[in-house]
Task: structure prediction
Amino acid sequence: MILVTGGAGFIGSNFVLDWLAQSAEPVLNLDLLTYAGNLGNLAALKNDARHVFVRGDIGDSALLARLLSEHRPRAIVHFAAESHVDRSIHGPAAFIQTNVVGTFALLEATRAYWSALPKNEQAAFRFLHISTDEVYGSLGNDDPAFSETTPYAPNSPYSASKASSDHWVRAYHHTYGLPTLTTNCSNNYGPRQFPEKLIPLMIVNALAGKPLPVYGDGQNVRDWLYVGDHCAAIRVVLEKGVAGEVYNIGGNAEMKNLDVVHTLCRVLTALRPGRDFASQITFVKDRPGHDRRYAINADKIRRKLGWQPVETFESGLTQTVRWYLDNETWLTNITSKAYQQWIDLQYAQQ
Ligand code: NAD
Ligand code: DAU
Result:
């Protein structure tokens, strides 16, 4: 079996669902169920014995040791993290705790488990660390896209914590020989994303007739990766990636935020005719330290492992919007009191 951390969150749950749709191999899913974790994401697996869910913290060393010795995974795919930049600006401590200290605890427990494996199982074992393009910092309009050798220059508390975790993973490979893999990907979007991130937040606000809050001048650029394409890339890296290597994953879809929101409004109008969603766009105060541009050079994973994204931004976005329109109960459950408190804190003064 494989151990997945953070498998009740956005990307983790999509990965677990995809994995079990394509493979008979069971998944042990360790997730703390923070505000971002949601068992509703995994409802389709309720009666599936191949999915074993454990609520727990990646920082809990005793729990990790027990789970590893009981379940004996052949690989770990590590998604669990605090993942929202704006929250990291309001409260960075949780980001150090989970992303740095938690990843360290997971690496230590993995090292102990892996060291005691027979040699052939040690060689086949993989620790796949899911990271972000934000560790590379911010690009100017004419700069080349981030490659795997771009120097680290994290700018937000979130990206600093992810950069730190990447360095710990690298050190465990270099020092102990732990067979690690690291992926750095761009902005994911798709079903089951918590509506604090740009695209689902805009969908929720648009449908509710609320303002669509664009930070600053809306000219910041992100590369957009459909979550299904990301899950396929992770499977390929796990299967064929070379231990110790880093792979950048991108969606071939660099866009300015304002263009993203206008495209989203067009898709929404096509699916819910008769409403002018774009009239809800409102410019609000910028995010402090807001990175201007991210762009991914994904040549390495394409050349070495044969992966490239299948979805265009339009096709991925249409599937995403349809999913949100078809899953009103999921949305109602998620837009709870705690969610409303976050929205009040982040957007109140705007
Ligand atoms: P998410 O916030 O939707 O989910 C994170 C999950 O981790 C939640 O289920 C949460 O309950 C769980 N978790 C948090 N702290 C935990 C802890 N201490 N122990 C166990 N579980 C814990 O995040 P996501 O968007 O799915 O991102 C997954 C990973 O991918 C993260 O490592 C993130 O940094 C990385 N990433 C995300 C994106 C993106 O666009 N969403 C892009 C690049 C990289
Ligand atoms: O690049 C990968 C990263 O993408 C991941 O590592 C992070 O986990 C993920 O959250 C995401 O970070 P961003 O900060 O780029 O994503 P977010 O959805 O928060 O914002 C996307 C862009 O939209 C960014 O330029 C800020 C802007 N934005 C965001 C929100 C929430 C707005 O203009 N208005 C908003 O209300």
